[in-house]
Each structure stands twice: as structure tokens, then as C-alpha cells.
User: What shape does this take?
Amino acid sequence: MTRLAEYRRLEAELAAQLQQLDAMKNDGHLKREIQFEQELRSLMAEYSMNLRHIIQILDPTPTSVAPETGRKHRPRQVKIYKNPHTGEVVETKGGNHRVLGAWKEQYGSKEVDSWLQ
Assistant: This one.
């Protein structure tokens, strides 16, 4: 790319960015945000507060404390199924058990669910 072509490309990009900037200057929502920021900074200076103080006031929960490592939901209950045809017993906490799945294929889900002790 020649220097002239690069210059014209950059000039076009700059014109597009200036157009976006002008459009943003007339945006009412942006004007409200700028006004809010100015007023907030003024209040912070007036009361000798920084952003951390403001956050501490608005959300006093400690953010630097590590979250609990324990479970937040109750543990799954053990379910015991007894096959009346074979007398075999299966204990499981979830439905993804190999033997239980085989029984459901062979006898059907409704019937196997009725075997729950």
C-alpha cells in the first residue's frame, strides 16, 4: 500500500470516528451519565471519599472473603430399588446407574420406578 493510500484510508477512518463521536455527543443517555459522574465525583471530593468507600457504603458485604467451599444444596438421597423378579437390590443416588438402566430397558421405567423401597 502506498503512503498516499494509507493516508486516505486513515483519513476516512478518522472521519467515520468523528461522525460517531458527534452522534454520541447528542445522545441524551450519555449526557445523563456524564452529569451523574460529575456530580458523584463532586460529592466524593466534598466528603473526602473514594470509590472503595462508596462501594463499602452501598454494598457492605465483604468481597474479599473467599466463598464457602461446602455444598450449597442438600446431598442426594440414596434410593433403593428391589427387583421382584430376581430379588436383586440396587442402591443409587442418581438415575444413571448401569443395572437400573438395564432394568428400565427390560421392564420399562414406570415398573422399575414402582420398585423403589
